[in-house]
């Protein structure tokens, strides 16, 4: 079963105040959100009481790892952490981009690092070529398959077309990982405003069932079970089975299913499930298939995992109205709307559509420009 990210759950009390241009926050929740918004807006932030009441106080290993990635991606950033790790002061520099290599560790999947990376990369000085190593698929974070199939087509709507590429070189299942991906992202002077309100009807379902260091028959069992569910509803279902062997198979055995539903208007919605200890291939297939059905039922032109990215890019788009239809807004996205207001001063108009049970969000863009990009 795919759960929400622990960092995306409130977990710890999160409060906010401002003084002299510095934004002050409390708690460990929404850690990446705040650092991404701070880097793009250029506003200094202070985060206090990070897990101060916990048995293991302070920043976790993966949060410190993310700070190292952010430090390598930017120039002139100042990161100050107190001795116990419960307070962080971050002064943003400018985003450089270029070629970077980073080991994401085994505490969180590569997807957890890719989500903020894709927010920052279009506004860098040089096009980003990032090689990330770690876990490619797990049952907590967004998988690399979903990132490639759902997130990349979404950001193309905002004008990021030429030079956008993503390759999975090695698979890595938990707990040992060993996966490797390469992400290339072009830079833009300015984004495009978007009008994405027509969700259309589901016309086909595609997917990838991968397995590493287990029998190749595992992927076939996943495909058969998932097709058995969807073929009752729609005829055009094709799920690829992807078996990795040898050096490309990572360090741990594992299998997962990533599904994509495409509509008549070109909207893509995704869902996924990965094996945990004791999972059967049939369980993984049923879990992912039911999650995709839930995603389709929620409606909207953006799936749950990409709501925040869409909201941020709408905020940074030209000084024109952007309008997008969402399904049910997650608590994480609702908090992101508050952060966009605090950092950028942008508020969204939210209108419920009772007929389709969806929500229409519109905003006037900031007209954010990447001044590092040379004018040709």
TrEMBL record:
It is found in: Nucleus, Nucleolus. Gene3D superfamilies: RNA 3'-terminal phosphate cyclase domain, RNA 3'-terminal phosphate cyclase, insert domain. Residues 24-350 form the RNA 3'-terminal phosphate cyclase domain. Its main location: nucleus. It comes from the Eukaryota. InterPro entries: RNA3'-term_phos_cycl_insert, RNA3'_phos_cyclase_dom, RNA3'_phos_cyclase_dom_sf, RNA3'_term_phos_cyc, RNA3'_term_phos_cyc_type_2, RNA3'_term_phos_cycl-like_CS, RNA3'P_cycl/enolpyr_Trfase_a/b, RPTC_insert. Transmembrane segments: none annotated. GO terms for biological process: endonucleolytic cleavage of tricistronic rRNA transcript (SSU-rRNA, 5.8S rRNA, LSU-rRNA). It holds the Pfam family RTC_insert. GO terms for cellular component: nucleolus. Keywords: Nucleus, Ribosome biogenesis. One of its GO terms (molecular function) is RNA endonuclease activity. Residues 198-297 form the RNA 3'-terminal phosphate cyclase insert domain. NCBIfam families: 18S_RNA_Rcl1p (TIGR03400). Belongs to the RNA 3'-terminal cyclase family. Type 2 subfamily. This is RNA 3'-terminal phosphate cyclase. It comes from Thraustotheca clavata. The lineage of its organism: Eukaryota, Sar, Stramenopiles, Oomycota, Saprolegniomycetes.
